[in-house]
Amino acid sequence: MRVIHLTGKDFYGAGRAAYRLHKALLKNDVDSLMVVGEKESTDPEVINIQQSAWAKWRRKLMIKIEKALLKLTPGTLFSSGIYALRQTKRINQLKPDIVHIHWINRGFFDVRCLSKIKAPVLISMHDMWYYTGGCHYATNCFKYQSSCEGCIRAANRFTAQQVSQWQAIKSTVYQKTNQLVFVGLSRWMTQCANNSALLRHQRVVNLPNCIDTSKYAPTENPKQQLGFQSDKKLILFAAVDALSDANKGFALLEKALSFLSAERYELLILGDKGKKAFADTTFKIHNTGFVTDDDLLIKYLSAADVVVVPSLMENLSNMIMEALSCSTPVVAYATGGNGDMIEHQVNGYLAEAFSAADLANGVNWCLENDERQMTLSTQARGSVIKKFNEELISNQYLKLYQELTAPNEN
User: Fold this and answer.
1) DSSP assignment, residue 5?
2) How far apart are CA 21 and CA 51, in angstroms?
3) What does DSSP say about strands 348-351 and 330-333: parallel, antiparallel, or unpaired?
4) Which sequence spans correspond to the domains of the chain?
5) CA 269 to CA 104: how far, in whole Å?
6) What's 222-387's CATH class?
7) How does 205-237 read in b/e, with b if 16+ C-beta sit within 10 Å?
8) What is the pTM of this model?
């Protein structure tokens, strides 16, 4: 069976999760290929179909056109899905049995081309985009449950009309697409999709991402290896654009620091190359910027005494899964898919949304004493091995692939 994973990148967020599934399927003797627009890995089974200068220029042009036409309120992550390149011919030439689609925005793939793919199509929803008019996270808006007409994030009437049209385009494309199945990576995402106007009549299944627990495992003496000499407990906050993306919740973490003792804790930040003027605090803060090396990230996760994920909305956070696999308890808000991974006061702490005080309570509770911290650490890793290991999850996806291809084989 040949599975083609279609995603904009083989790194960051959705690309990172897709790549892990791709590697897990290869270990399961599945003929898996990734088709991307930007490639960082040296994996020969990852094909960059937009590596030519011409393709790169066209994709950048598409992004600029979309940005110019979208008039939205500031801070909105939004994609039309149509100002993008069309790669259907190349995909069909690879003769896939299944095309597994992940994150396709930022000029990578025109959503209208879905219906031209000849193989059955599986779509993993890494955010809410596939059932909205264009926003990737709807936050406090529920228009996607009926119609995105009159989009609350549109800055003018023209843009609001466009959003409604883009939602209608998706609806038409989905109806024409061959054997289409959507995957909600978390129970929350699955429920939201089932409640949406676009997907309530489509098949939506709940299957999570996976992780290589043999690779993401605690390391020996990580603090010493990284040069942390203080006896203070280390709080880790890590995300792509950790300080600049409002959804990642640094503003709430910053407030939570006022409830925590600078004599007891230090803060480590990963994932933002920019500088930020921190609020008046006596906390010692280490800001290392982006960490692109997995082995180094694992050392940081192992060195942390607790990882805090204060995001406003998360589907199935890579960071939470990675931290737990490295035996580090996680404090996050009881929102989105966080509850799929964090069992409250078993392997971490689910704080009241969006309370800075309870976020701080979670840190204090997890690290109240060494015995509790050790128990949480053991249960953290055990929970990931039990629920998200490569063999388990790849077999579940393989079963779904076989189900979708069975009619064609017959």
Assistant:
1) E
2) 23
3) parallel
4) 2-210+389-409, 222-387
5) 28
6) alpha beta
7) ebbbbbbebeebebbeebbeebebeeebbbbbb
8) 0.95
